[in-house]
Amino acid sequence: MDRESFTQKGAEIGYETLYTLYEAAVKKALALPYGELTPKKIGHINLIHKFQKTYRVSDPIDWKLLLDKVKESGYTLDYNFAGIDKPDYGKTYPDPEMMAYAIKIGLTYEKGSDAHASHEVARYFGTATETEYDDWKEA
């Protein structure tokens, strides 16, 4: 979804409602909808934040509870760096605070970069884990 479509929908139904619908969709994905054939990786868990610099909302989603559900369901979390390049977001999916909690609860994760060209593979991996996220061990 592009910024214009997202902000139009948010203005139409309310951003809190949009977030609540997104949360329901994530929970549905975590409910093993295809039984044992369900892929056990959840990606871009907080993609709803992609355009967050363009609007104001009190986020109604309990992200800790959602991350607990990811772990409880046996999923691996996609720790994705593509959001850093998004002008209306500028962070990882999940964001640093959520990722600190994921690590604290022992949630299994894999790094991703959404690379579409060889020079994009693993971009930001080293800098993020070696600098601003060093305090994860203490989380």
From TrEMBL:
Cross-referenced InterPro entries: Histidinol_P_phosphatase_HisJ, Pol/histidinol_Pase-like
EC numbers on record: 3.1.3.15
UniProt keyword list: Hydrolase
Any one biological process term the GO annotation gives: L-histidine biosynthetic process
Example of a GO MF term: histidinol-phosphatase activity
Hydrolase recorded as keyword: yes
Signal peptide boundaries: none
GO cellular component, one term: cytoplasm
Listed name of the protein: Histidinol-phosphatase
Organism of derivation: bioreactor metagenome
